[in-house]
Amino acid sequence: MFVTREYALSAPAADTAAVVRELRDRAEIVDALYRFGLGQDLKDKDLLASAFAADAELDFRPAAARWGGRPPVMSGRDTIATTILALFSGRVDTTHQVTNPRVVVDGDSARLTALVEAQHLFTADHGTFALLKNLYDVDLVRDGRRWTIHRMRIDNVWYTGDPTAVFTG
After folding, report:
1. Distance between CA 74 and CA 152 in Å, rounded?
2. β partners of residue 133
3. Is residue 118 within 8 Å of 147, Cβ to Cβ?
4. Taking 70 as the threshold, does the pLDDT of residue 169 lie above it?
C-alpha cells in the first residue's frame, strides 16, 4: 500500500542517463501532488485539474471516517476539481504542505506515498478551523512530460479543530 522500500533510486548508479530520467520522473511525480495542494490553496481550477488523469479517482473516505464524515469517492478530473473548489471557494481558506514523499517508478506508472498537512479555516472566521495531518497513497500515470494522479487515497493520521464544520459546506 505505501512506499516503504529502503532506497530511493532504482536506476543503476553507473547509468547516468537512467539516473537522470528517474530523477526527472520523481520530480514530476511529486509535482502532481504539489499541483493538487496549490490548486486548492489558490482556488485555481486549471492547476488543480492538471494534477489528475481524466479518469482519476479521489477517495477521501478513510480520512473523513475519523470524524464521522461519509463523502463519496470522486471520479473524473473535472468532477474532482469542481467538487473541491465548490466546497471551499468563498468559504474556506486552505494551505497544504507536502512532506516525506516516497516514490517508486515502474515505466509509465508510479506510486507515491506522502504526508500532507492541510489547514482549513473559515474565510469569515479563522477561529473555526480543521488542521489535518493526512497520509496519501497515490497511483500515477505518465502524461507526456508530466505525471498525473490516477488514484488517490487519503487517510487521516490526526486532526485538531472541527472538521465537521469545515467539510459539511
Report:
1. 10
2. 117, 158
3. no
4. no
